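The instructor's notes for this session suggest beginning with a concrete chain rather than abstract definitions. Hand out the sequence below and ask the class to guess, before any prediction is shown, which regions might be ordered.
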Amino acid sequence: MFDDLRDLYQEVILDHGKHPRNFRHPPDANREAKGDNPMCGDRLVVYLKVSDQGIVEDAAFLGKGCAISTASASMMTEVIRGRSKEEVMALFRHFHELCTKDEEDRGEPEAIDPDALEKLMVLSGVRQFPVRVKCATLAWHTMAAAVDGDTVVSTE
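After discussion, reveal the predicted structure:
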C-alpha cells in the first residue's frame, strides 16, 4: 500500500514538473516576488492578483528549477487561487510544517480546506531529503513575500 501511494505521489510531482499549471505572467498581476535558491539554481517569479478585499484572484509563476521546485509552484498556484491572504498564509505555514516536521511534531492544522491539504501531501516526502526541502518551499516563501509586499526572497 505504501509503495502504491509513493508511486502516485511521484506521478503527481512528475506531471506538475513536466506540465506546470499557471506557468505564465498574468498581465493584471499587482504583486510579484522573485525567489532564488542559489544552492541548486532554482529561480522563479511568483505573480499574484490580489483584490482590494485581500482575495488572491489569480496566481502564476515563471522560472526554472528542478521537478520538485516546479511541481510545488504549480500546485501552490492551484490551491491558493480564490483564497484570502489569511488562508493563503495558513496554507503556507502548514505546507512548511509538512516539509520540515514529522507528523507527531506538527501542530494542529489551522482551519484550512482539507482538500487543499490533501493535494499538498504529495510533497511531504521531501522532509526525508533535507537538501530538497528548499526546492519544495521556494515557491511558497516567494508567494508569502509577494503577499507581504516584498519583492525578493532567497533560501540562503
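Then share the key points. The beta strands are 31-37, 42-50, 56-64, 152-154. The chain has one domain: 2-154.
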